[in-house]
Write a structure and sequence with these properties.
Distance between the termini: 16 Å
Order of helices and strands: EEEEEEEEE
Radius of gyration: 14 Å
Helix content: under 10%
Structural class: mainly beta
Number of strands: 9
């Protein structure tokens, strides 16, 4: 684990994290992120993730996240459709198959369990 720290998330610099082209349904979404801490066994991750507008698919890990900016609609196969925006907290279950329609560049802080 990292030492205790504070970071202003809206201004945090992120690194490109290219999508697998097979995940892109439409548009030209770009993803970037930054892992802020990771447990010794690599199963607990905390970080920042950002995606620009477009439509992508994913298979989720066990995740809790808070949207800081932007808006998206997340369709979960066989489950609910989530509409997220600034200030919203969402939980995704491991194995959820999702389609993200990103309406405005979305930045979130997350905690993932692998």
């Amino acid at each position: 684990m990292t030492e205790s720290f504070v970071l202003h998330i809206p201004a945090a610099e992120l690194e490109p994290d290219p999508l697998d082209p097979a995940q892109i349904v439409s548009g030209t979404p770009e993803v970037s992120g930054r892992v802020l801490s990771e447990s010794a066994d690599g199963r607990q991750l905390r970080g920042i993730w950002q995606i620009t507008p477009g439509v992508v698919t994913d298979v989720e890990a066990d995740e809790l996240f808070v949207v800081l900016s932007g808006r998206a609609t997340i369709e979960i196969d066989g489950g609910p459709t989530l509409h997220v925006g600034p200030g919203d907290c969402a939980v995704l279950r491991a194995g959820d198959r999702t389609t993200w329609t990103v309406h405005e560049t979305l930045r979130k802080a997350y905690a993932i369990t692998l």
